[in-house]
Amino acid sequence: MPWRAAAAAGHYPLVMVERPWSADNPRLGGEFASPAAIRWYLERELGRLAADGARIAVSGGREALDLHDPRLGPAVDETQWDLRRKKLFLFAPERMALSIDRLQHYTGTSAAMFQRYVLLTNYAWHIEEFLAILPDSVGPDADGRQMPAWHYMLPGNKGVSIVNIGVGPSNAKTLTDHLAVLRPDMMLMIGHCAGLRNHQNIGDLVLATAYMRDDRVLDDMLPLSVPVVANHTLNELLLGELTGRGLRSRMGIVYTTANRNWELHLAMVEDQLRVSRALAVDMESATVAANGFRYRIPTATLLAVSDKPLHGRPKISTDAQDFYTASRREHVEIAISVARTVSELYPGGLPAAGLRSPDEPLLGLANHEASYPVDED
Predict the structure, then answer these.
(1) Cβ partners under 8 Å of residue 80, min gap 6
(2) Measured in Å, how far apart are the chain's first and last C-alpha atoms?
């Protein structure tokens, strides 16, 4: 296999694609690290191009860098990253290699074990329910991993993975930064939130249509002026599942904060909550969605209202434990069911609008010094 031959020779496999139908960008190309980790994605995307008449060649590219090589730092620096490259060639191989190693470190599972459909949570209880529903799932190679993952593995990576990312936007950014190189078809955040509306009850579900970002961890990379929304198709499927089960839910703005005790500093955020018409507060959803937007991965959010601090229902231990016990199984069942539906209805990937810019490469190369041509989605 050309992939293996290139890797065995100590080089990054180089893929070049010639598209006879494209007058503007007939040749696309890029290098990969550990292509086996995204074999399903490469087979699908390159197979689609070949079926359309593209000519595809795989050969040895540049010499692969060791992760201890001092040249790695500049190679993974995304300061000048061109977000308009084709999704297939979005990441440099050095970035892929580093992220694949980090995923093993954080989750205790290899990158190749990750499935196309990924659930993110910050509760061990959700992991317990996932394993009760899918007992054949494979988990970390050792205890004590910072963000342990479990995978219900199916051929072609068509199963479901779940990761306990822990609490807070920093963790959410860390995991999704690295997960992005695997090109998952879906990232779905499941967790709990504070309800902000009078007519919300404890246990009601929340689907985010968009996000108010007060997480602070991506502001320099994605300005707050850029709107971030949930994937419409995912929300439709989630809403259909909730309606079919007869569950109470609302759709609207989710406010994500980096301050776990935000209600102790209410005067600092109450205007944002009011003006944004937010209906819930959490600590991870906007971060996951913002990174999904940056890296072009469909995302959505399914939260359950666990407390209402503005209405005399703060999160008190006894009440919280009762709520978690009553809600957690169905919460995970819904997420798994929607992942299966996505797999059945959209094997080629969820509908998602690509990023485009006024100076998109159709009007000229975004970087005239680039080694490979770039193209719009």
Answers:
(1) none
(2) 28
What is the C-alpha to C-alpha distance for residues 240 and 38, in angstroms, rounded to an integer? 31
| CA diameter of the chain | 65
Length, in residues, of the chain = 377
Beta strands in 19-54 (DSSP E): 27-31
Query: For residues 335-345, b (16+ Cβ closer than 10 Å) or e, as one string?
Result: bbbbbebbbee
The tokens for 207 are 């689907």
Residue type, position 250, single letter: R
Q: Tell me how far CA of residue 354 lies from CA of 30, 84, 222, in angstroms.
A: 19, 9, 16
Place of tokens 């997480």: 215
How far is it, in rounded angstroms, from Cα 327 to Cα 334?
11
- Quote the tokens at residue 66: 């060791």
42-84, pLDDT tens digit by residue? 999 999 999 999 999 999 999 999 999 999 999 999 887 777 7
Q: What is the pLDDT of residues 305-347, one digit of tens each?
A: 887 765 545 555 565 566 566 678 899 999 999 999 999 999 9
Question: Any idea what the Cα angle at residue 74 is, between residues 69 and 78, rounded to 5°?
Answer: 135
Asked if 59 contacts 11 with a C-beta cutoff of 8 angstroms, the reply is: no
